[in-house]
Amino acid sequence: MKISIVHSVLFSAILCISAQASESSWSAKSTDSQGDNTLSSSTKSSSTVKSNLPEGPQVSAKATRQSQVARKVDVRPAARDVSQDYWVYDAYVTLHTDSDYDGFYHHFSLDFDIDSIYAHSEVYARLYLGVDETFREYHTTSDFYIEGDSTHDQITVETELLSGFYPDDYEFLIEVYDAYSNELVAVYDGYNDADLYLVSIESQDKEVIYVEPDVVVIEANGGSMGWLALLLLPILLVRLVNTSFIK
Protein backbone atom coordinates (compact mmCIF):
# COMPACT_ATOMS: atom_id res chain seq x y z
CA MET A 1 0.00 0.00 0.00
CA LYS A 2 2.85 2.37 0.89
CA ILE A 3 4.55 1.61 -2.43
CA SER A 4 1.35 2.42 -4.32
CA ILE A 5 1.04 5.76 -2.52
CA VAL A 6 4.67 6.62 -3.28
CA HIS A 7 4.19 5.73 -6.94
CA SER A 8 1.05 7.86 -7.07
CA VAL A 9 2.83 10.86 -5.56
CA LEU A 10 5.78 10.49 -7.95
CA PHE A 11 3.44 10.20 -10.94
CA SER A 12 1.55 13.34 -9.88
CA ALA A 13 4.81 15.23 -9.46
CA ILE A 14 5.98 14.19 -12.94
CA LEU A 15 2.68 15.34 -14.46
CA CYS A 16 2.95 18.66 -12.63
CA ILE A 17 6.50 19.26 -13.85
CA SER A 18 5.50 18.32 -17.39
CA ALA A 19 2.55 20.72 -17.30
CA GLN A 20 4.74 23.55 -16.00
CA ALA A 21 7.28 22.94 -18.76
CA SER A 22 4.52 23.02 -21.35
CA GLU A 23 3.11 26.24 -19.91
CA SER A 24 6.48 28.01 -20.09
CA SER A 25 7.43 26.98 -23.64
CA TRP A 26 6.23 28.31 -26.98
CA SER A 27 7.06 28.19 -30.68
CA ALA A 28 6.11 29.88 -33.94
CA LYS A 29 6.91 29.58 -37.64
CA SER A 30 7.30 32.82 -39.62
CA THR A 31 8.30 34.15 -43.02
CA ASP A 32 9.30 37.78 -43.53
CA SER A 33 9.21 39.55 -46.86
CA GLN A 34 9.68 43.02 -48.32
CA GLY A 35 7.60 43.61 -51.41
CA ASP A 36 7.97 40.53 -53.62
CA ASN A 37 11.26 39.56 -51.99
CA THR A 38 11.17 36.81 -49.34
CA LEU A 39 13.88 37.58 -46.80
CA SER A 40 13.83 34.49 -44.58
CA SER A 41 11.75 31.76 -42.94
CA SER A 42 12.37 30.40 -39.48
CA THR A 43 10.83 28.49 -36.61
CA LYS A 44 11.50 30.20 -33.31
CA SER A 45 10.78 28.89 -29.82
CA SER A 46 11.71 29.32 -26.19
CA SER A 47 14.09 26.35 -26.47
CA THR A 48 15.40 25.93 -30.04
CA VAL A 49 15.37 27.77 -33.35
CA LYS A 50 15.53 26.67 -36.97
CA SER A 51 16.28 29.05 -39.83
CA ASN A 52 16.67 28.60 -43.57
CA LEU A 53 18.97 31.57 -44.12
CA PRO A 54 21.64 30.86 -46.76
CA GLU A 55 25.02 29.80 -45.47
CA GLY A 56 28.19 31.87 -45.72
CA PRO A 57 30.28 34.38 -43.76
CA GLN A 58 28.21 37.35 -44.91
CA VAL A 59 25.09 36.06 -43.19
CA SER A 60 26.68 34.55 -40.08
CA ALA A 61 25.67 37.46 -37.84
CA LYS A 62 22.11 37.39 -39.18
CA ALA A 63 21.85 33.65 -38.65
CA THR A 64 23.13 34.06 -35.09
CA ARG A 65 20.35 36.50 -34.22
CA GLN A 66 17.64 34.33 -35.74
CA SER A 67 19.13 31.27 -34.05
CA GLN A 68 18.80 32.77 -30.58
CA VAL A 69 16.24 31.36 -28.17
CA ALA A 70 13.08 33.45 -28.07
CA ARG A 71 13.12 36.22 -25.49
CA LYS A 72 10.64 36.98 -22.73
CA VAL A 73 10.14 40.62 -21.70
CA ASP A 74 8.44 41.49 -18.40
CA VAL A 75 8.93 45.27 -18.74
CA ARG A 76 8.16 46.87 -22.09
CA PRO A 77 10.87 49.25 -23.35
CA ALA A 78 9.91 52.91 -23.18
CA ALA A 79 9.90 54.94 -26.38
CA ARG A 80 11.76 57.77 -24.65
CA ASP A 81 14.73 55.46 -24.06
CA VAL A 82 15.40 54.86 -27.75
CA SER A 83 16.77 56.90 -30.65
CA GLN A 84 14.54 59.53 -32.22
CA ASP A 85 16.19 58.94 -35.60
CA TYR A 86 13.99 55.91 -36.33
CA TRP A 87 10.29 55.29 -35.86
CA VAL A 88 7.48 52.97 -36.95
CA TYR A 89 5.16 54.95 -39.20
CA ASP A 90 2.34 52.40 -39.22
CA ALA A 91 1.54 48.76 -38.43
CA TYR A 92 -1.47 46.50 -38.76
CA VAL A 93 -2.45 42.85 -38.32
CA THR A 94 -4.26 40.64 -40.83
CA LEU A 95 -5.93 37.51 -39.43
CA HIS A 96 -5.91 34.46 -41.70
CA THR A 97 -6.85 31.09 -40.14
CA ASP A 98 -9.07 30.06 -37.22
CA SER A 99 -9.38 26.29 -37.56
CA ASP A 100 -12.01 25.72 -34.86
CA TYR A 101 -14.02 28.90 -35.55
CA ASP A 102 -13.86 30.12 -31.96
CA GLY A 103 -12.74 33.63 -32.91
CA PHE A 104 -9.05 33.07 -32.05
CA TYR A 105 -6.55 32.83 -34.91
CA HIS A 106 -3.24 30.95 -35.05
CA HIS A 107 -2.28 32.16 -38.55
CA PHE A 108 -1.83 35.90 -39.16
CA SER A 109 0.37 38.56 -40.76
CA LEU A 110 1.94 41.69 -39.27
CA ASP A 111 2.79 44.53 -41.65
CA PHE A 112 4.87 47.50 -40.50
CA ASP A 113 6.64 50.45 -42.10
CA ILE A 114 9.81 51.83 -40.47
CA ASP A 115 11.03 55.33 -41.31
CA SER A 116 14.25 57.18 -40.54
CA ILE A 117 15.91 60.56 -40.90
CA TYR A 118 18.63 58.76 -42.86
CA ALA A 119 18.27 58.15 -46.59
CA HIS A 120 19.55 54.59 -46.36
CA SER A 121 19.65 52.32 -43.27
CA GLU A 122 19.82 48.63 -42.42
CA VAL A 123 17.77 47.36 -39.48
CA TYR A 124 16.04 44.27 -38.13
CA ALA A 125 13.05 43.73 -35.83
CA ARG A 126 12.07 41.53 -32.92
CA LEU A 127 8.34 40.78 -32.68
CA TYR A 128 6.47 39.93 -29.48
CA LEU A 129 3.01 38.93 -28.28
CA GLY A 130 1.98 39.96 -24.80
CA VAL A 131 -0.72 39.79 -22.15
CA ASP A 132 -0.62 41.75 -18.86
CA GLU A 133 2.77 43.36 -19.59
CA THR A 134 4.54 40.04 -20.23
CA PHE A 135 5.73 39.75 -23.83
CA ARG A 136 7.10 36.64 -25.58
CA GLU A 137 9.15 36.91 -28.75
CA TYR A 138 7.79 34.90 -31.66
CA HIS A 139 10.05 36.07 -34.51
CA THR A 140 13.30 37.90 -35.31
CA THR A 141 13.42 39.24 -38.85
CA SER A 142 16.48 39.13 -41.04
CA ASP A 143 18.23 42.43 -41.80
CA PHE A 144 16.42 44.68 -44.26
CA TYR A 145 16.94 48.11 -45.77
CA ILE A 146 14.75 51.18 -45.28
CA GLU A 147 14.82 54.30 -47.41
CA GLY A 148 14.06 57.42 -45.35
CA ASP A 149 10.30 57.86 -45.12
CA SER A 150 9.50 55.74 -48.18
CA THR A 151 6.28 53.69 -48.12
CA HIS A 152 7.74 51.08 -50.47
CA ASP A 153 9.99 49.40 -47.89
CA GLN A 154 7.20 47.94 -45.74
CA ILE A 155 7.86 44.56 -44.09
CA THR A 156 5.33 41.71 -43.94
CA VAL A 157 5.78 38.87 -41.44
CA GLU A 158 3.42 35.93 -41.90
CA THR A 159 3.22 33.69 -38.84
CA GLU A 160 1.71 30.43 -37.66
CA LEU A 161 1.82 30.06 -33.88
CA LEU A 162 2.64 26.41 -33.26
CA SER A 163 2.40 26.02 -29.48
CA GLY A 164 2.28 27.73 -26.10
CA PHE A 165 -0.22 30.55 -26.73
CA TYR A 166 -3.58 30.08 -25.01
CA PRO A 167 -6.67 31.77 -26.46
CA ASP A 168 -6.54 35.42 -25.38
CA ASP A 169 -6.53 39.01 -26.60
CA TYR A 170 -2.86 39.75 -27.23
CA GLU A 171 -0.88 42.94 -27.76
CA PHE A 172 1.87 43.18 -30.38
CA LEU A 173 5.23 44.73 -29.53
CA ILE A 174 7.77 45.67 -32.23
CA GLU A 175 11.40 46.37 -31.36
CA VAL A 176 13.58 47.84 -34.13
CA TYR A 177 17.38 47.46 -33.96
CA ASP A 178 20.29 48.92 -35.89
CA ALA A 179 21.71 45.99 -37.88
CA TYR A 180 25.33 47.05 -37.30
CA SER A 181 25.39 48.18 -33.67
CA ASN A 182 22.44 46.05 -32.41
CA GLU A 183 21.20 49.19 -30.66
CA LEU A 184 17.47 49.39 -29.95
CA VAL A 185 16.34 52.37 -32.04
CA ALA A 186 12.52 52.24 -32.07
CA VAL A 187 9.60 50.70 -30.17
CA TYR A 188 5.98 50.34 -31.29
CA ASP A 189 3.07 48.66 -29.48
CA GLY A 190 -0.58 48.91 -28.56
CA TYR A 191 0.03 52.24 -26.85
CA ASN A 192 0.99 53.72 -30.22
CA ASP A 193 -1.54 51.94 -32.42
CA ALA A 194 -4.90 50.40 -31.51
CA ASP A 195 -4.48 47.92 -34.38
CA LEU A 196 -1.85 46.14 -32.28
CA TYR A 197 -3.99 45.88 -29.14
CA LEU A 198 -6.48 43.17 -28.10
CA VAL A 199 -5.97 40.87 -31.07
CA SER A 200 -7.70 37.49 -30.61
CA ILE A 201 -5.00 34.85 -31.02
CA GLU A 202 -4.14 31.29 -30.00
CA SER A 203 -1.54 28.74 -31.08
CA GLN A 204 -2.29 25.85 -33.40
CA ASP A 205 -2.09 23.29 -30.60
CA LYS A 206 -4.97 25.09 -28.84
CA GLU A 207 -7.26 24.85 -31.88
CA VAL A 208 -9.84 22.27 -30.77
CA ILE A 209 -11.56 20.77 -33.79
CA TYR A 210 -14.64 18.65 -33.00
CA VAL A 211 -15.24 15.77 -35.39
CA GLU A 212 -18.70 14.22 -35.27
CA PRO A 213 -18.57 10.43 -34.99
CA ASP A 214 -19.86 8.43 -37.93
CA VAL A 215 -23.35 7.00 -37.41
CA VAL A 216 -23.83 3.53 -38.86
CA VAL A 217 -27.42 2.51 -39.67
CA ILE A 218 -28.03 -1.21 -40.20
CA GLU A 219 -31.17 -2.09 -42.15
CA ALA A 220 -32.50 -5.63 -41.91
CA ASN A 221 -34.56 -6.76 -44.89
CA GLY A 222 -35.94 -10.27 -44.67
CA GLY A 223 -38.57 -9.87 -47.40
CA SER A 224 -42.10 -11.31 -47.35
CA MET A 225 -40.85 -14.79 -46.42
CA GLY A 226 -39.31 -13.41 -43.25
CA TRP A 227 -42.59 -11.86 -42.11
CA LEU A 228 -44.50 -15.04 -43.02
CA ALA A 229 -42.13 -17.11 -40.88
CA LEU A 230 -42.73 -14.81 -37.90
CA LEU A 231 -46.50 -15.15 -38.31
CA LEU A 232 -46.38 -18.97 -38.54
CA LEU A 233 -44.07 -19.39 -35.54
CA PRO A 234 -46.85 -19.16 -32.85
CA ILE A 235 -48.95 -21.75 -34.76
CA LEU A 236 -46.05 -24.18 -34.88
CA LEU A 237 -45.44 -23.74 -31.15
CA VAL A 238 -49.10 -24.50 -30.35
CA ARG A 239 -49.04 -27.66 -32.47
CA LEU A 240 -45.87 -28.85 -30.76
CA VAL A 241 -47.43 -28.33 -27.33
CA ASN A 242 -50.64 -30.18 -28.30
CA THR A 243 -48.65 -33.06 -29.75
CA SER A 244 -46.68 -33.47 -26.53
CA PHE A 245 -49.88 -33.58 -24.44
CA ILE A 246 -51.47 -36.23 -26.68
CA LYS A 247 -48.45 -38.46 -26.30
From TrEMBL:
Keyword Lipoprotein applies: no
Taxonomy, superkingdom: Bacteria
Keywords for this protein: Signal
UniProt region (Disordered), positions on chain: 27-66
InterPro entries: GlyGly_CTERM
Compositional bias ranges of the Low complexity kind: 40-51
Signal peptide start and end residues: 1-21
Polar residues composition-biased segments: 27-39
Protein's UniProt name: GlyGly-CTERM sorting domain-containing protein
